[in-house]
Write a structure and sequence with these properties.
Elements lengths: L9 E3 L6 H12 L7 E3 L7 H13 L5 E3 L6 H14 L5 E3 L2
Parallel strand pairs: 1-2, 2-3, 3-4
Helix pairs in contact: 1-2, 2-3
């Protein structure tokens, strides 16, 4: 549904304990979505695998400009995956990892 949705522009799933598996499913849907510009995934128990999957999507998605990932457990390795994605995306403007 989200993959083909043409009206939703912002997703706030803060504090939903999505974990890596949930973020992986969200990332898969966002890979083909062309309307979402903002994602808040604060406090979702996201680890390295989830960060890697999200980074993969950010490399190809051309609409996401803001991603909030505060209070997760992505660590240095997960941050590295996201940093690599930043090299390949021209649309992402804000990535909050506090």
């Amino acid at each position: 549904m989200l993959a083909s949705n043409s009206t939703i522009t912002s997703i706030n799933l803060c504090g939903n304990a999505l974990g890596d598996a949930g973020v992986g499913r969200l990332a898969a849907a966002l890979a083909t979505n062309s309307t979402v510009t903002s994602i808040d995934l604060e406090q979702n128990n996201i680890g390295v695998a989830g960060a890697a999957r999200l980074a993969e999507t950010l490399r190809s998605n051309s609409t996401i400009v803001t991603v909030e990932l505060r209070a997760n457990s992505i660590g240095d390795e997960g941050a590295g995956h996201l940093a690599e994605a930043l090299k390949l995306t021209s649309t992402l403007r804000t990535l909050n990892l506090d």
